Amino acid sequence: MELIAYQDTTAFDELQNDWNTLLSRAPINNIFYTWEWHSTWWDAYQPGQIWVITCYDDDKKLVGIAPLFIADTENGRYVRIIGCVDVTDYLDFIVDADYADTVYEAFADYFIENRDKFDVLDLCNIPQESVTLKLLPELLKNKGLDTSVEQQEVCPIIELPDDWAGYLSKLDKKQRHEVRRKLRRIHGTQSDVDWYIVNGKHDLDNEIASFMQLMAASDPEKAEFLQDEQNVTFFKNIVPKIHDAGWLQMNFLTVGEERVAAYINFIYDNRVLVYNSGLNHEEYGKLSPGIVLLAYNIQHAIEEGYSLYDFLRGDEVYKYRMGGEDTAVMNITSK
Fold it and tell me: In the chain, what are the domains?
């Protein structure tokens, strides 16, 4: 194994053609691990010194990427995965499944050899099924580092059935009644209710602006999030890139000419990932437009044959009412 470390943005230029190809051979292929996500996040935030460590086999084939950065904090120099922690729901090393044991051993050795560069490895947002969790902590412990693994948060998911009736049967009786009632009510009181998915017929910039208005209106924390220029830069840059890659599903619920609720979902690896939402509470809250649009989204996902509906990080009550079941994201700390 040959390891090469990048300490500037040439990492993204030189690895662009091979990054997602390697990701397709990894045990978990996730949109948050793509070259598009990492490079766009770094352009927006740049919170430290890039430290992208790559691993090649004897034939010079790329078999591993540890996409890291080193952040100087008041508690020392922290090594984190690019994307950590906000705006990115899952993170991990990107490793060819056929080389996992060898690559993780090489990464662990590299951390020991470069121990003078950092004080703490702080690897966040790692999904519970990650090979990194299975291999890296034990390797680091065996090499003398004080290493711990803790649950950081949850990502509720729905394993989608074959049809809408099958989905409703997964809900408890009360919630099944509530979903049906909300759908009947909005159509009973509004004759011009509809929804649409943004496509090539729409002006993407205009749709993004409308989404951000609804996002800010839906929650004070989201409004505050959009006051940060870095967050706005990231959002405005990542959405078009995801759109161009064919992974974006931005959709709106309309009443007449007005957009009243919206979701940004990602469609990737036969699953739907619910990234963000917006809602006009003040004028349309009584119609439960957010839940109505979510129900349409889930029904559409079933019709399209997607296998999983992932609500991503957070334990908001509505996710469980709509059938979500917890999976965990973990944090590895080593020093």
Answer: 2-153 (3.40.630.30), 161-306 (3.40.630.30)
